[in-house]
């Protein structure tokens, strides 16, 4: 048994050592190639983030909703103001007719009292 282990152990020590594997790889390029590659790449734009996009959307939506509400209320105010003005003119005409009717009744009463 010892005879079998000994040659195996000797063979392991007698083998030439393998060169170590190179883990890093170097890339090389000439300076003109690096300059053209850098010039061809467009500048990186900062992405429009979700928070800024959300804030922009919220402010835009709020502004549009506020403007729509403002013009809706302005239109409702104009319509109600016109209706109120028409009602005031109608009331003024009714009061004037009532005043004329009361004056005619008073004149008739005065005429009846003078006859007596």
Description:
The structure is a single chain. The protein is mostly helical and 116 residues long. The protein is 77% helix and 0% strand. It has helices at residues 2-14, 31-40, 50-115. The longest helix is centred in the C-terminal third of the chain and has 66 residues, at 50-115. It starts with a helix and ends with a helix.
**Helical content class:** over 70%
| Class by alpha and beta content | mainly alpha
Mean pLDDT: 80
* Mass-distribution shape: rod-shaped
What ranges have pLDDT less than 50 throughout 5 or more consecutive residues?
none
By DSSP (H or I, 4+ residues per run), the number of helices equals: 3
The radius of gyration computed from the alpha-carbon positions, rounded to a whole number of angstroms, is 52 Å
Task: Please describe the biggest sheet, giving its number of strands, its sense, and whether it closes into a barrel.
Answer: none
- Beginning-to-end CA distance, first to last residue: 166 Å
Number of strands: 0
Brief synopsis:
The protein is an all-alpha fold. It has helices at residues 2-14, 31-40, 50-115.
Secondary-structure map with pairings?
Blueprint: H1 2-14, H2 31-40, H3 50-115
List keywords for this structure.
116 residues, 3 helices, rod-shaped, mainly alpha
